[in-house]
Each structure stands twice: as C-alpha cells, then as structure tokens.
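Subject: Sanity check before I submit

Could someone independently write out the structure tokens for this chain? I want to compare against mine line by line before I put it in a report. The sequence has 55 residues.
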Amino acid sequence: MTTKFINKETEGDAAQVMREHGVKRVPVDYFHVGGYRYTDMKDAIAQAKRTKKKS
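---
Independent answer below. Compare away.
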C-alpha cells in the first residue's frame, strides 16, 4: 500500500474518493498538558491536577 499525501492539487481527487467510500473528515480537538497530547478533556484535566499536586 502506498501513502499519498494530500496537497492543494490532489485534495479534490481525495474528496471524491472519500465520498465514493463513505469516508468523512471531522475536526478533532487536542488538549495539551506538560508536553503530552490528549483527545479526552477529562484525561487532560486529570493529568493537569496530578502535575499541580507534585509542584
């Protein structure tokens, strides 16, 4: 399997292929704490609290 990077020229083609296969692009929020990235806000807050206790 080859990986193709999407650029401005191929983005339209990628969108068409995604539609054909029912793939949807959705935005994702990331939460950063102490150099780590979390996708769940609860986990990020829990880590921030643990880090604060150590200080």
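---
OP: Matches mine. For the report I'm noting this point. The longest strand covers residues 31-33.
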